[in-house]
Amino acid sequence: MKKALITGVTGQDGSYLAELLLEKGYQVHGIKRRGSLFNTQRVDHIYEDPHVDNQNFVLHYGDLSDSTNLIRIIQEVQPDEVYNLGAQSHVAVSFESPEYTADVDALGTLRLLEAIRICGMEKKTKFYQASTSELFGEVQETPQKETTPFYPRSPYAAAKLYAYWITINYRESYGMYACNGILFNHESPRRGETFVTRKITRGLANIAQGLEGCLYMGNMDALRDWGHAKDYVRMQWMMLQQDEPMDYVIATGVQYSVRQFIEWSAAELGISLYFEGEGVDEVGIVKAVEGDNAPNVQAGDVIVKVDPRYFRPAEVETLLGDPSKAKNELGWVPEITTQEMCAEMVAHDLEEAKRQALLKNHGYSVPVARE
Ligand code: NDP
Ligand code: GDR
């Protein structure tokens, strides 16, 4: 039985990857952080009771900032494959916590690679690094592919640039099977609530059900190449099944604006929306409402506003990937379109909003967490 170790197993990608590897017959080990609240919601459905023998899904406490703990876990697990998905992954937050982001995202990767080497596993363990389209930042060519020069635009991207190169360095220096997946944005109903797609689907579903009044957005002109996380974790696994380690761009090859994603999400709720104004005065106004999914929205309501607090000190305006290498060499193609993914996310968040609205209508208090 193959053993895999996933850092960031409690995150969006970690949870889908753990499911995929369990389906493939792996024993899956994951590193979870200690938190003051439970933080395993995304993997609770695959949780296995640690009090019984022959567990296939095992969670270990750990942190990418603690090398002693990484060495101990690698020594104990002896993994065939390590997927380094753990990170402070929010670009805007990296401007607020740059040093922490560098410690976890850059040095954390080094600590993990070094832990594999210290345990004498560098010829046995295959290593996947969660690299990112944010490396392209201020884009130097469109679409972006494996050979496009990097130009990071945030502390997050600069930290991930170090992680990208140290992964290649360990491959070249020690003959490790270590590779980078340069993944463009990918989303799902499990996406963190403060990333733009989930903020939109959850916010509009809440507004439709009367739980919130308005969605406050940053730069709605930003263009992104959004895929579905399920498609992307499949590629993470495929990259470790080759004879030689290689780096790949993973993307859909199609881009849309944040504004377009808002319009799609509203349409899924039966809300027809138009935008008026410019810059911070730009608002999204309801044109018409159909069906019974948005009982609390009326024509003429302003349900989207721009708030400059969500602008970033340096923005990545446009990203569009060219996944030809992954397609030609590994036969990988995304199966879920951006619009299908948007519909899935809205349906998921609408169900939750309806549940909350039911409680509210029966007199229970339902505070809504927001940034
Ligand atoms: P999430 O933010 O959903 O998950 C991040 C995971 O990392 C969580 O499990 C989190 O734990 C964990 N983590 C955070 N800090 C630490 C730490 N100090 N030590 C150990 N674990 C830590 O991210 P995604 O699943 O979306 O992304 C997975 C990886 O892929 C990340 O590295 C991200 O930067 C990268 N990436 C993501 C893309 C995307 O569009 N989703 C695109 C390209 C790259 P906790 O649950 O406790 O917070
Ligand atoms: P990104 O994702 O920064 O691309 O990083 P995010 O969804 O946060 O932003 C995408 C774009 O939307 C614009 N935007 C807003 N973003 C947020 N979060 N909130 C807003 O209110 C808002 N309004 C507009 C942003 O300015 C940006 O242009 C994600 C993360 O998953 C990284 O870990 C990963 O490496 C990259 O994708 C690829």
Automatic annotation (TrEMBL):
EC number, as in UniProt: 4.2.1.47
Gene3D superfamilies, sorted: NAD(P)-binding Rossmann-like Domain, UDP-galactose 4-epimerase, domain 1
Catalytic activity of the protein: GDP-alpha-D-mannose = GDP-4-dehydro-alpha-D-rhamnose + H2O
Pfam families: GDP_Man_Dehyd (PF16363)
TM spans (from-to): none
Root EC class: lyase
UniProt domain NAD(P)-binding: residue ranges: 5-345
Top-level taxon of origin: Bacteria
Cofactor(s) required, per the database record: NADP(+)
GO molecular function term, any single one: GDP-mannose 4,6-dehydratase activity
Alphabetical keyword list: Lyase, NADP
Protein family according to the UniProt entry: Belongs to the NAD(P)-dependent epimerase/dehydratase family. GDP-mannose 4,6-dehydratase subfamily.
Function, as annotated: Catalyzes the conversion of GDP-D-mannose to GDP-4-dehydro-6-deoxy-D-mannose.
Descriptive protein name: GDP-mannose 4,6-dehydratase
Organism listed in the record: Gilvimarinus japonicus
